Amino acid sequence: MSRIGKRPVLVPAGVTANVSGQLVKIKGSKGEMSFEVPDDVSVALENGAIAVQPRSQSKRARSLWGTSRARINNLVIGTTAGFEKKLEINGVGYKAAVAGKVLKLSLGFSHDVDYTIPEGVTITTPKPTEIVVAGIDKQVVGQTAAEIREYRGPEPYKGKGVKYAGEFIFRKEGKKK
Predict the structure, then answer these.
(1) Which one of 17, 40, 53, 113 has the largest count of C-beta atoms within 10 Å of its C-beta?
(2) Among 52, 75, 64, 63, which residue's Cα sits nearest to residue 138?
(3) CB neighbours of 176 closer than 8 A, spacing ≥ 6?
């Protein structure tokens, strides 16, 4: 049994929720998003909350039950508060700057890395060694942050590279004489 799926998604004041068939549309102060619930799961709007139930007791229906509820909850959170991921850059001469729709990264390569900022995501650099990725879609924000981190992930000896804020890097001891 899904423990997450049992709880209904509460729709806060100022948010408009619309359920038509398997399509859930949420409109909030930050924007509008929709999610098509799989056919194995039924969804209904009841008393200002969205309830999700499996249509059968098959393994697929039970596994999609909690996932669908979490995705709908992320729509509500995204359209009201939004999501953000913070990245930190460590290393001598490593820095980042936003120029229009391009994030310019100096990561120790012979050239600067230009990352085109996708639609629906805003990237800011409060400091040259800090990147903030924000948006209303949790998946797109996380994917964008992961792609930026992938250019130069943190290495285990000195910790140089791009890492998530608060991420623990397992450090290795260097070579001994």
Answers:
(1) 17
(2) 75
(3) none
DSSP 146-176: HHHHHHTPPPTTT--EEEETT----------
Tokens standing for 79?
A: 């359209």
pLDDT in tens, 104-145: 999 999 999 999 999 999 999 999 999 999 999 999 999 999
pLDDT tens-digit readout, 32-89: 999 999 999 999 998 889 999 999 999 999 999 999 999 999 999 999 999 999 999 9
What is the value of pTM for the model shown? Answer: 0.86
End-to-end Cα spacing for the chain: 57
Distance CA 101, CA 114 (A): 10
